Amino acid sequence: MNKGLTVGRTGPTKSASRAPSVNSKQQEVLDVASEYFLTHGYQGASINAMARSSGISKESIYRYFGSKKELFEAVIDRELGEYQETLRGIDGTSAHLSLREALLSVAEAILGLITTDRTLALRRLIFDEATRSPDLGQHYYKIGPERAYRKLELLFKSHRVDSAFEHRVLSRHFVSLISYRTMMERECRVMEQPSVERIRELMEFVVDDFTQSFLRL
After folding, report:
1. Is 13 within the bounds of a domain?
2. Is the CA virtual torsion 139, 140, 141, 147 positive or negative?
3. Cα separation of 200 and 104, whole Å?
4. Same domain (yes/no): 25, 51
5. pLDDT tens track for 148-177
6. Residue 215 forms beta bridges with which residues?
7. Count of beta carbons in the 10 Å neighbourhood of residue 2
8. Based on the domain organization, do 39 and 85 belong to the same domain?
């Protein structure tokens, strides 16, 4: 699957939960593994072939990652790193932002990540492999969508949002409004990868529609 795919490195590259323990050699392994998985797919990738094509010894790969599955999870962690950093950063600024500004920051962070060609390709790999290894899909969900839901719940709570819906429900409605139509258009190749300016424009409409429809202002 995805053989011959070439994806530019336009998505996040910072380390996520593994950041404190990642050294330059591990980063080199993750660089190679990211491109190899995207090119050959998860099922088509093997540690032996990865080592041969990259010049990194198989022993070096297994020194840091005990299996192909563990390596793939580390790739997922790193690809989501910048997104997670952005969400964490909102903690320190949300008190100084209006609700609209905070929601725009979250929306832009989410849409900016999930609409890149690189992330779309990675998500296809994850969803395909999740049919055989559900825990891989669950790992992605936990550090991606679920983290965004929790962040939004805390944001609604800190701004004392008044709504007919619980904060947990509001967070899911908001993410759906952010992502569903745009992701469908991206996957169906109706839309090209949107620019930062286009993302901002789209999310301003979404945030305004959301606040008018779901919140008591």
Report:
1. no
2. positive
3. 8
4. yes
5. 999 899 999 989 999 999 999 999 999 999
6. 163
7. 17
8. no
Residues 6+ apart with CB under 8 A from 26: 64
The CA angle 124-129-134, to the nearest 5 degrees, is 120
**CB within 8 A of 11, min separation 6: which ones?**
79, 82, 113, 116, 118, 119, 122
Is 192 among the domain residues?
yes
Residue keyed to tokens 């010894």:
57
CA separation for the pair 215, 73 (Å, rounded): 37
Q: What is the DSSP string of 190-216?
A: SSPPPPHHHHHHHHHHHHHHHHHHHB-
Are residue 58 and residue 109 in the same domain, yes or no?
Answer: no
Residue 26 domain boundaries: 19-77
Tally of domains within the chain: 2
Candidate ranges 7-16, 46-55, 95-104, 117-126; pick with highest mean pLDDT: 117-126
Compute the radius of gyration of the chain from its Cα atoms: 19
How much is the average pLDDT of 71-93?
A: 81
* Secondary structure class of 163 (helix, strand, coil): strand
CB 79 within 8 A of CB 144: no
pTM score, two decimals?
A: 0.80
